Amino acid sequence: MILLKTLFIATALALTLPASAEYSAKKKISNAEERKELEAFFKDLEVFTATYGNIKKLYVDDVDNKELFTNAIKGMVSGLDPHSVYLEPKEQKNLLENTTGKFGGLGIVISKKDDIIQVISPIDDTPAYKAGIQAGDMIVKIGKKPVRGMTLEDGVDLMRGKPGTDVEITIVRKNVKPFMVKITREIITIVTVKGYLLDDGIGYVRVSSFQKPTTDLLQKEIGRLAVENDGDLNSLILDLRNNPGGVLDAAIDISDLFLDNTGTIVSTKSRIKSGNTQFSATSGDILLGAPMVVLINEGSASASEIVAGALQDHKRAIIMGNTSFGKGSVQTILRLRDGYGLKITTARYYTPNDRSIQAKGIEPDIQLKNINLDNKKEEGIAGIKESDLKGHLEAENPAELSSKEILDTQEERKVVENEKALERLEKDYFVLEARHLLKALTVLKK
């Protein structure tokens, strides 16, 4: 205990005193604020050491020191905000791999809210998506194990498993009795970009997440639609609904595709000077100024909000739908010793007009209601927001997949999916409203 307290005293001096700590330590601290802060630190330290000592002495089982310190660090980090987390070696490896296009598991992005695991969004064409899992669903049981009291990592581990095996999850959804869904685990190929040519030369492109190959895929898909339209597209619908985000570079590059000036795309602001950055566009608009609508909703988060905010502030696109999720913070992954890592929030994102995205989201230029043109009762629940979160966003274990492999997979599926996809788009109220607007804008432009 004495050794532990000595260690924390040394740490406190290193953190509290100026850079010239060796010199300052020999001097009496004259500044009243510094003295008060140091006294408060030692008072809090006494509570920590007393708690540690009582656990070691009185707890019913003997607990390893490493486990106690790991739990203490996890609690300290997770208490900062919903996205900061202390990563054990397995979690660190999974997170560093989380920017590729192939996932194993169910295909959902989840978060912990209070004692419940909530679905941020299902990923397109995955087992969870096909099983009807919706953004905002609350998972209360995995198999026979209640989620209450379970960590998010424990929940993820239970849902992972060998491809071809089943997992049963119990869902709570507004206006619906709790129900159980059996989902078969798969190795999932994520096709992040899908495009279709609608009537009057209107291109529709759906981007389901932002990964390393996404920009290349989007360029190729827009080029294909232009060829299919015997030239350039008259206008474009970019659908970012229920897109949970992903790689920052992809968001910047995709925004840049549609901007013909060299202004700001997104900036970050931090406590430290090195965290203040600004990302700018280069000249050249892939659509040559053709009218554009971006669709967003409560499930559009992070990188989706960067793209929507950039195109909105530059007046390059009209944003339609519902206010986005509001995840506007920057996480940095630090490698620690023995395979451990620290994902910590280091800055906030700002749009070109210096608007903060964090906990506010992007307000659409045109608000739309969630109307179902099939006349079926909507049973979804209100979307969760960044400001509601206590747990952090989590994605399942990914593996490498090249841009070409994803595109090849998309081509193989296209013939089968096109007819059904176009039927769905005809009944999609958001897409219908976007088409009406684009037709009017095209007429005005001519």
What does this structure look like?
It is a single chain. It is globular, with a radius of gyration of 25 Å. The protein has helices at about 1-15, 20-25, 30-60, 65-80, 90-95, 125-130, 150-160, 215-230, 250-255, 305-315, 405-425, 430-445, and strands at about 85, 100-105, 110-115, 115-120, 140, 145, 165-175, 175-185, 185-190, 195, 200-205, 235-240, 265-270, 275-280, 290-295, 320, 330-335, 340-350, 365, 400. Helix 8 (about 215-230) links the parallel strand 11 and strand 12 (about 235-240). Helix 8 runs parallel beside helix 9 (about 250-255). The termini are far apart. It has about 450 residues and is of the alpha+beta class. The strands form 4 sheets. Strands 3, 4, 5, 6, 7 and 8 form a 6-stranded antiparallel beta sheet that branches. A 6-stranded mixed beta sheet has the order 10-11-12-15-16-19, sandwiched between helices. Mean pLDDT is about 80; it is low at about 15 and about 375-400.
SSE inventory with pairings:
Blueprint: H1 2-16, H2 21-25, H3 32-58, H4 65-78, E1 85-87, H5 89-96, E2 102-105, E3 108-113, E4 116-122, H6 127-130, E5 138-142, E6 145-146, H7 152-159, E7 166-173, E8 176-184, E9 186-189, E10 193-197, E11 202-207, H8 214-228, E12 235-239, H9 248-257, E13 264-269, E14 277-280, E15 292-296, H10 303-313, E16 318-321, E17 329-335, E18 341-350, E19 366-367, E20 398-399, H11 403-426, H12 429-445
Parallel strand pairs: 11-12, 12-15, 15-16, 16-19
Antiparallel strand pairs: 1-18, 2-9, 2-20, 3-4, 4-5, 5-6, 5-7, 7-8, 10-11, 13-14, 13-18, 17-18
